[in-house]
Amino acid sequence: MITLQSFLTPDPEICSEQALYAHLKGAAVYSQSRQSYMMERGGEVRLDTYVNLFSLDTWARGCQLDGLCAEIYGQGRLGVRVYHMREGRSTERVFSDVLTLTPEQPAQLDLDHLADGNSDGLLYLRLVAMADGTEVSGGRFATRSLPADRPLPRLTISITTFARETEVQRTVERLETFLAEHAYRDQIRVQVVDNGAEAGCPAQIESRGAITAYDNPNLGGAGGFARGLLEAEEAGASHCLFMDDDASFHMENIARTYIFLALAHDPATAVAGAMITNTHKWRMWESGAWFDGSCRPLFNGVDLREPEEVIEMALQAPHIHRPTLYGGWWFFAFPIKAVTRHPFPFFVRGDDINFSLANEFNIRTLNGVVSFQDDFTEKESAQTLYLDLRNHLVQHLTIPELKRSALGTAKVAIYFTLRSLLRYHYSTAAVQLMAWQDVMKGPQFFEENIDMSERRATIKEMSADEAWQPIAQVDLSEHRKGVATWSHRARHYWGLFTLNGHILPCGGASKLVVDINRRALVIRAFGAARVSYINTNRDKAYTVARDRRRFFTLMWQMAKLTWQFRRDFDSLQNSYGAGYESRTTKGFWQRILGKA
Questions:
Q1: Which UniProt keywords are given for this protein, alphabetically ordered (predicted)?
Q2: Are 171 and 206 in contact (CB under 8 A)?
Q3: Per-residue pLDDT tens for 219-259?
Q4: What does the angle CA 361 – CA 8 – CA 330 come to, to the nearest 5 degrees?
Q5: Which of 73, 202, 361, 505 could bridge 213 with an S-S bond, Cβ 3.0-4.6 Å?
Q6: What are 179-188's pLDDT values in tens digits?
């Protein structure tokens, strides 16, 4: 039998949120030491969870299956029910029986009638112990065989790293352990691209014998993944999987992705992994995303502890087909033959968006294929917002589906900059205006500044007053009065109409302290004269204050840039039309990386 999807259980190194894996009732508990569910009579394990729901829309319709079955491993007498849920219909019970499990003989459930390619909806198992001492140690959904008319994918997993020696070494160890037991280990190759090679990763990794590592100049994620793609193609891979070095994930990600690519009807199929933040491991950050003026994550905020929300998300996900859908490079697997455009030299931020949109991939998401990593809100800085604004403008200048008028494109930059100005982040706003000017220099600017070294130094100097400081050095006293005590609705309108008090002689005198996970919300700064932001670990903070002179100086600069952008828009579009194409070729990166 060919495993499609194995049952996942909590892993304290990755995620211990039980509700993502199974819902327990009665005398049932997850044993971390045995990695199994221990149940007394009447205890129940229900697998209608994000990582264990089985999507018929995704697997039965998207893949060539040779039948379908479910298997359960463990020991004891177990009441087993399989439920079929479809949108707009009552849930149907498609299997119900009492089975006896032994360590030597798993229970096998015949679900062939649901594998004909016409079935939709979701399947999940409900397991009830019929006797004390029942144990469920695992299970899977499986099909009989692989298609005989196509070769197996030759997958290269490419990890780009920079100054994260400990993290990447641990990921490599886990990959080695997983692949040693994987049925298709001979078809999967792992490589690490070390940008800058400052941590000596290549020598340490290659000494282990199973992983290939490459020194690479620090050209950011774009340069690292471009190198990874070149090496994967040179090694004869049919598919490449891009992964970040700061993401933690179940190795089941690799197993599900590989077999899905092997069975997919469409040879252009790509798999985009979802992302959950380490701050709240029960909440979805995004499961796929689309782009139009800004990044629009799909299913952001879904509470993965709630079965109703998870089921609604899982039913909707296979039917989302937006023309500007993209996959993040924390986990993105794609067919190399479908690549017509290599990464644009963004350094970081936006390279994954552009790569997805410039190539005709059929991007899919799979339940449970997810990475856990640091919150983007936590990472936000003047530098990341500089990079974000650059990439947002370039997407609209290069991707046909995103073409806008001059003013429509300028509105993207105006929105970004105003968000910073209204939150008193004047230094960040100045950096963003510099980003806009840099985009207006044309695509040659990105090649000339491909390592971002000069710009990074400039940005650091410009935004020093908005850098994190040890919390003991920051005044965190808080005083709310006037506008800051009004209702949310009243503060919202007051803040917008008065530009957060900048156009009034007295614009609110409160001193506020704002948690980092609310820093992106402009309204949190409305009515304050001073705002202090504090990080998740409560060990760093910084303070910004209203400054009308800086505000209007930057507003005037923004107005002049808007006029210049509109004046030069046609020539700028023509410049990017030619320059973008020449800087997204295989030959461009071979020349830049010295592999021509």
A1: Plasmid
A2: no
A3: 999 999 999 999 999 999 999 999 988 778 999 999 999 99
A4: 35
A5: 202
A6: 999 999 999 9
